[in-house]
C-alpha cells in the first residue's frame, strides 16, 4: 500500500498501481507496512489465534470460499444442534 502525499490517493503495488511514473515516484509507504512491523503483527495475531482456539475448543470451522447458501446451511446445521445443558 502506498499513499500519494499530493492528492492523498491510495494505491497498491499489485492490485491498484499508480497510473503514471510521476505519481509512482512520489508515493510513500506507511511505516506500519514495513516488513519488520508486519512480522510483529503476524506474531501477535497467531499468538491470539492460538489462545482463542484453546479457549473455544468446541468451535467449528467454516470454509467461506464457496456458495453463500452452502455456507449458510453449514452454519445453520452447526447451531441448530441442541447445546448441552449443565446440571
Automatic annotation (TrEMBL):
<comment type="similarity">
    <text>Belongs to the adenylate kinase family.</text>
</comment>
<keyword id="KW-0418">Kinase</keyword>
<keyword id="KW-0808">Transferase</keyword>
<dbReference type="GO" id="GO:0004017">
    <property type="term" value="F:AMP kinase activity"/>
</dbReference>
<protein>
    <submittedName>
        <fullName>KAD8 kinase</fullName>
    </submittedName>
</protein>
<dbReference type="InterPro" id="IPR036193">
    <property type="entry name" value="ADK_active_lid_dom_sf"/>
</dbReference>
<dbReference type="InterPro" id="IPR027417">
    <property type="entry name" value="P-loop_NTPase"/>
</dbReference>
Amino acid at each position: 500500500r502506498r499513499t500519494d502525499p499530493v492528492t492523498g490517493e491510495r494505491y497498491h503495488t499489485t492490485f491498484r498501481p499508480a497510473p503514471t511514473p510521476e505519481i509512482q515516484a512520489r508515493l510513500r509507504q506507511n511505516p506500519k507496512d514495513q516488513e519488520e512491523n508486519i512480522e510483529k503483527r503476524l506474531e501477535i495475531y497467531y499468538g491470539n489465534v492460538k489462545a482463542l482456539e484453546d479457549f473455544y475448543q468446541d468451535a467449528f470451522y467454516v470454509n467461506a470460499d464457496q456458495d453463500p447458501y452452502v455456507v449458510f446451511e453449514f452454519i445453520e446445521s452447526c447451531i441448530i444442534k441442541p447445546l448441552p445443558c449443565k446440571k
